[in-house]
Design goal:
two-stranded parallel ribbon, mainly alpha
């Protein structure tokens, strides 16, 4: 991933529900994963995606990194079918495909990879560019904070809901295309919206974030803007 230029994200040590842990255990989940990343590739993560989307201000402050959610959950973890994965993103949720979108997919599932091989060229042909979440933030004139992000849509930026946004930059002033269509591991403050599920099963009952399920039995990688594993 490092050699490919992906951003290295942290999705916790063993996919625990952070709402069920004390803060010391939460910190250990991410610090243990960071140490494993350092051992594997020489660097710790720059961003975090919490399992099941379960994070709050106390958890984010304790971990001390930007947390990412998603604008569009492909539900690939549920479908595990190339055609359904494609349809979910390119047809059923086509209105969400726009400049600044983060798409959640899981590269542990082969159908997701095959679907991405269809989806990515189409997005590029539509004028979009896939970037890491930190590259997206920089392009949108956002200095990432210890906060939660799920999109970089211009109207959300302009409404003041994206922590660290410093105003319109020349690069994003008029572009509806040139988006990251991504996956992580969440912009616009802490309120993620109504329909976010991180797709990986039914565990991860989020007492504080209704509707979040992270849907991944194993450690997953988000396709698109951020490659968080």
């Amino acid at each position: 991933m490092v050699e490919l230029g992906c951003e290295i994200g942290n999705h916790s040590w063993d996919h625990a529900n952070m709402f069920e842990l004390d803060i010391d255990s939460v910190v250990k989940q991410f610090s243990d994963a960071d140490q494993a990343l350092i051992n594997a590739c020489g660097q710790a993560s720059t961003v975090v995606r919490a399992p099941y989307g379960n994070a709050n201000e106390d958890i984010m402050a304790a971990v001390g990194k930007p947390f990412f959610m998603w604008s569009l959950d492909s539900l690939d973890w549920k479908y595990k079918d190339v055609d359904l994965d494609y349809k979910s993103i390119m047809e059923d949720n086509s209105s969400v495909i726009k400049d600044g979108t983060i798409i959640l997919m899981h590269d542990i599932h082969e159908p997701s990879v095959k679907a991405a091989e269809r989806i990515i060229p189409e997005l590029i042909s539509m004028g979009y560019k896939l970037v890491t979440v930190s590259e997206m933030a920089e392009a949108k004139n956002v200095t990432l904070q210890v906060a939660s992000y799920n999109n970089f849509w211009q109207d959300i930026l302009d409404s003041g809901q994206v922590p660290g946004y410093a105003g319109n930059s020349s690069s994003d002033a008029s572009s509806e295309n040139g988006s990251d269509s991504s996956g992580s591991e969440d912009s616009s403050g802490d309120s993620q919206g109504e329909d976010f599920s991180d797709g990986s099963g039914d565990e991860g009952d989020s007492s504080e974030n209704d509707g979040y399920t992270d849907g991944s039995e194993d450690s997953e990688g988000d396709f698109s803007s951020d490659s968080e594993g």
